[in-house]
Specification:
With about 200 residues, the chain is mostly beta strands. The chain contains 3 helices and 12 strands, in the order αβββααβββββββββ. About 40% of the residues are buried.
């Protein structure tokens, strides 16, 4: 894959006053992510190195069925990174979380980013995922999978912004499990892409 630079990161970040999380070619990049000084009720981690094992194990791969969708099975088998977000009970996270997926490749590449968001009861959070292609020299295919658990009376606002240009292909699957009286709002904005 192509080298990631501060310039590429800066060009992909278009929101201010957010917790920014970077996933490049399917892998969580902690050194560019702005996740220091998180509220005590919020955890944002690399999905392959989570410190909250009990919550992760209870929810990971529980809502996306590998037996009903080949792309879910492919993601489950080949994911090398992604984002784990955990919001504790009764937490109100005032700053949105912006996950920025960047494809930057020099040869035809498939990436399988995997996300898991666990929002406990009566919590509130806004999560934005953007998908961009920067300086691709070849075609990229992103097979993104996000599982979201929303506890009772919780409120989650989720937005996807897809801007992959003519060399970027995106298949993005979101599977949600909602408990009673929870609210889930999702919006998808497609700006460009060869396949979105």
């Amino acid at each position: 894959s192509a080298k990631i630079t501060n310039e590429k990161i800066s060009s992909a970040k278009f929101l201010q006053n957010v917790f920014s999380v970077f996933v490049v070619n399917g892998k969580f990049i902690s050194e560019f992510s702005e996740i220091n000084n998180l509220p005590n009720e919020l955890f944002i981690e690399n999905i392959v190195r989570t410190q909250i094992d009990s919550v992760f194990e209870k929810h990971f791969s529980k809502y996306a069925d590998i037996y009903t969708d080949a792309f879910i099975a492919m993601n489950t088998a080949f994911a090398e990174g992604g984002v784990f977000i955990y919001v504790r009970k009764n937490a109100v996270i005032k700053k949105p979380i912006h996950i920025i997926h960047i494809s930057t490749v020099e040869e035809n590449t498939i990436a399988n980013p995997r996300n898991l968001f666990v929002i406990e009861e009566n919590a509130k959070v806004k999560i934005i995922e953007s998908f961009v292609t920067i300086d691709n020299k070849a075609k990229s295919f992103t097979n993104a999978l996000t599982e979201i658990f929303i506890g009772a009376d919780a409120n989650v606002e989720h937005t996807k912004i897809e801007d992959e240009n003519e060399l970027g292909n995106l298949l993005s699957t979101t599977q949600v499990c909602q408990k009673e009286k929870s609210v889930f709002t999702t919006h998808t904005i497609t700006l460009s892409g060869a396949l979105v």
